[in-house]
What does this fold into?
Amino acid sequence: MRDGLLVPLPQYPLYSASLTLYGGELVPYMLDESTGWGMTVPHLKQQLEDARSKGITVRGLVVINPGNPTGQCLSHDNQREVVQFCKDEGLVCIADEVYQSNVYAEGKSFASFKKVTAGMGLLDAVPLVSLHSISKGFTGECGRRGGYMELTGFSPEVKAQITKLVSIHLCSTLSGQICVALMMNPPKPGEPSYDTYLKERDGILSSLKRRAMRMVDALNKMEGVTCNAAEGAMYAFPQITLPPKAIEAADKIGKKPDWLYCHDLLVETGIVVVPGSGFGQEDGTNHFRTTFLPSEDDIEAAILSLSKFHVKFMAKYK
It folds into this structure.
């Protein structure tokens, strides 16, 4: 039997790598760049039916919200459509929500798939795995590791088997476990540390929002570069239209065109970005993923260096 998962493209490579490790099948669905990296149920159905026609038993659907590497934040209506799709097709919904604190777009707000599913009265009808982590957001950022998954809509027997399976793995360090507890139970109004917590949380998130807007604005001013708004998470995922000579140069060394761009950027500036081909992308397009994590002072220097490199690279291959 060939089991598979519907996984978004572009995607955080953890999912494709895990499927390969455990002998599963990647069933990709494309996020629509022209609509701000949206997902549509008709496309999901098309990919599901295509996989089933090839003898693949699709077990679940992965949703990354806010998106990595694409930075989109799904609308609540879109989430309800996804939940209904999973119910209708008998799929487990795996909701990767590790960037839930990082939403910057005006008029957008995060809602967990658990909340959406409960609001539809389907919490017992749709098997849902909710993922969260201290390594993103603002609690521990990238310096500490810890997280959890919550299961709803599963039978007690299945939960018992999953608990048994995860119990044989190593757990987070003690500091990571403490941070998870603090993330789940932050200081409350009236407690001594509440004002400090609020000030630090809001300061970090408002700074990330300014940096996100600054980075996207700078990218969109570069020749041949288009970038959707970074509505959430910590990344921008611009598309770059590279000159034919750059594509030919990459072909000659057996590399993807966006790899060549990212490699040359690293060599000339020391700036590390990730080729879009590493995440999966629509055929004939090139992207790279960049963060906006440098401090507000440092990010200006990084943008200036990136912009100068881009001008040189485009001129070199014209």
Observations:
- The longest helix spans residues 194-220.
